[in-house]
Amino acid sequence: MASSSSLILQPLILPSTTPRAAFSRLVFLPRSLSPRLRAVSLSTIAMALRTKFPHVLTVAGSDSGGGAGIQADIKACGAMGVYCSSVITAVTAQNTVGVQGVHPVPEAFIEEQLNSVLSDMEVDVVKTGMLPSPGVIKVLCDSLKRFPVKALVVDPVMVSTSGDTLSSPSTLSGYRDDLFGMADIVTPNLKEASALLGGMQLQTVSDMSLAAKSIHKFGPKNVLVKGGDLSGSSDAVDVFFDGETCYELHGSRVQTRNTHGTGCTLASCIAAELSKGSPMLEAVKAAKAFVENALHYSKSIELGSGPQGPFDHLFRLKSPPYNVAPGLKFQPDDLFLYAVTDSGMNSKWGRSMTDAVEAVIKGGATIVQLREKHMETREFVETATACMEICRLHKIPLLINDRVDVALACNADGVHVGQSDMQARTVRALLGPGKIIGVSCKTIAQAEQAWMDGADYIGCGGVFPTSTKKDNTTIGLEGLKEVCLASKLPVVAIGGIGIGNANLVLGTGVKNLKGVAVVSALFDRESMEGETKKLRSVLERVLSNVSEGTVVL
Ligand SMILES: Cc1ncc(COP(=O)(O)OP(=O)(O)O)c(N)n1
Ligand SMILES: Cc1ncsc1CCOP(=O)(O)O
Ligand SMILES: [Mg+2]
Asked: Matching HAMAP family, A to Z (predicted)?
């Protein structure tokens, strides 16, 4: 083995994002190598370590308004951290009012653009948008046969939301007979799915499932039917079919006029995620979350006088990182065993907050809230940051009680607020759409307000008398049921709950009552892990009895 004196330290300039990453890429070569061999070795290593930049090629039309088409695709891919090249199939004159003109690019020149990019630039995924004529579809299919790529995403753009035609009806057979068979996914909206299926009526989610299955027969590996235009639906439901299973993907319907380009963006984000190596369903979910976030952040944009405005793909550049960092997405079932800490109890038993959090997670807690009424702010942030690390490791959401500032500082998954804390609507504005917000409610009116304010769940209680929270009114099981039945939100019960009475709570069998939140029954005990395990097994037993129809009291 060469001694250190016979080694040269040869830093290679290789793609790296941080100084630390650059340092870890320094390469040692023996001094004894001839300069020529050294040069050859270095270039071989450089080639081997070269970072391949994920690359999406979009084949679509230009939107002069910048909200949809090629412009949306490039911005979306950039926002997802992916390189995007573009083959332009048509130039459109459009704005927020509608499409004023379409100027198709000659097919031979589309072919030339495809050749230029595909022959040279290592494209991973091709995404298609506006393909104005059957001839363009044929040119594209031929190019893809000559230059195969890892995946093909087809957004069968036919008519703009303003009702203007973007591709001739004769393209329908080109899509169905030629392009779909090569596609990894096709992403029609309701109108496009209906046109592809000869005018089939699509009015419900089950119609969408049928449509997805029928379109799958044309040959694509996966189909996503987008339900953004489904009338009477309070959320944004898309149906994904992978040839075996149909999935309903629910998202929140963002109230905004700035929706121009959502279809192009969704398909581009799917392509971008695929180019990074994500599996298809994960790519679709990530794309849907991106679009939902972008719509949220763009609600206040005012551009143009028409009915449909553009949104901001690059919202992440302007938002503080804690607002957009992907945290744990809220799942109502996370409320099943909700552990709420108490520093008084921890110090009584001589344990740190981190040990306490680790113990309840090991015992089976499904979500944790740090409820610290007296801790100094600096200590609270440090403790919360340490607890966040533990929770992240175990994929358990961590919420902060009352203190939005602490939640922001430690990038917690969310905040729980009560009726005298900051209003949930303000918390939502500060935390952004991706974070979890819980609100304490004792009445139907409070539950309605929590829903309107954008809360994710309700904490309802005290169900039984408790000495943990002073002067707290007890609402009983009846009060709990009343709030649950009046709200669409998932509910967690709190107050005086433990191993001895958790069955009474979950045994009510109310559908949106998802779990129990517990302080003293876990933290004012010698073995927190053991107590959490016991409570979890009680809850699981009740749940299985309830789902079999037996209510255990
Ligand atoms: C899950 C859960 N539900 C209710 C509460 C109570 O919150 P709040 O009414 O703000 O009272 P304090 O906890 O702040 O005393 C909660 N913390 N968690
Ligand atoms: C925070 C809170 N909110 C309503 S009751 C309560 C206290 C619950 O504590 P315990 O589980 O010890 O009864
Ligand atoms: Mg509070």
From this structure: TMP_synthase
**Which numbered atom of ligand 1 lies nearest the CA of 458?**
3
CA distances from 233 to 83, 255, 266, 296, 307 (A): 35, 13, 20, 18, 20
Kindly report the pTM of this predicted structure. Answer: 0.65
Distances (CA, A) of 159 to 99, 110, 164, 472, 518: 10, 21, 5, 58, 54
Cβ–ligand 1 distance for 340 under 6 Å, the answer yes
Q: Which of 249, 284, 72 is nearest to 160 (CA)?
A: 72
Q: Give tens-digit pLDDT for 382-404.
A: 999 999 999 999 999 999 999 99
| Alpha carbon separation from 499 to 337, 447, 470 (Å, rounded) | 12, 27, 22
- 71 Cβ inside 6 Å of ligand 2: no
Query: Model ipTM?
Result: 0.98
**Cα(92)–Cα(59) distance, rounded to whole angstroms?**
14
Residue nearest to ligand 1 atom 9, measured at CA? 418
- Longest CA–CA span in the chain (Å) reads 85
Pairing of strands 513-518, 491-494: parallel
